[in-house]
Fold:
Amino acid sequence: MTEGGHIRALRILETLAGLQQPAPLMTIAEHAGLPKTKAYRVLRDLQDNGYVDHIGRSGYRVGARAIALASLVGPRPALVQRALPVLVRLAIDAGETASLHLRSGAHRVLVLRADPPGSTHRIAAIGERSPLTSGCGGTAILAYLPTPEVDIVLGRESRVVRLDLPDHLAQIRRQGYATSQSANHPELNGIAAPLLDPDSGHALGSIAIAGAPSRLPDPGRLARPLLAACAELGPRLATVLGPSSSVRLESLDVTIQNVLQSQA
Structure:
């Protein structure tokens, strides 16, 4: 597979992960922005290597090897060890749910959450995937990506994004955080700030605080503790997910074998 083919394979796999599964070939091709014939060839390669399963006329779904890869590079113990204490302290101080979001292409995924003591409200589920252009958790990341990557995201989402989004991203960079009202969830206000790689200054993810408007009419009042939490966690997160990560990864093949055996 060529270098361009590897990028297409990653794009197809990421697209499939964001669709209701099994997903038809045409749906995958359209969402990935590829011709049907090219998408089919990539899916066949992924299928032959265990990253995708073909479910007859129903289409395709993420395969065992991709699931193993996700478990390997997802919310690993090293990440949880660094992030959870910060989120718990922030949730207690704010009296609202604090959540950690990581970038996934043009989207962000909620990977960890801490609720305040006594809370019975579950604002968002672990694994929730939303566009970077929607909600404070996404725009806080988007505002701190390299300009070419921002242009790609805005171009891909041009049919659905608000026209003032570039100005909004500039405002986020000036104040250091983003706010939103009912962007991804009805009747929820939120504030989020980026988790920056100290070497590049680019966002690896974000921390968001969200609550009902009656309890959080002015999310900006939580900016100070939120920014402090992000300044503390950003460098820690970079040691796990940044380009200069010093965390050793376990063998992927062991994880794959465990998944395959469990499905046998």
Remarks:
- Residues 218 and 238 are 30 Å apart (CA to CA).
- Residues 248-264 have pLDDT under 50 and may be disordered.
- Residues 3-62 form a domain with the Arc Repressor Mutant, subunit A fold (CATH 1.10.10.10).
- The two ends are 29 Å apart (CA to CA).
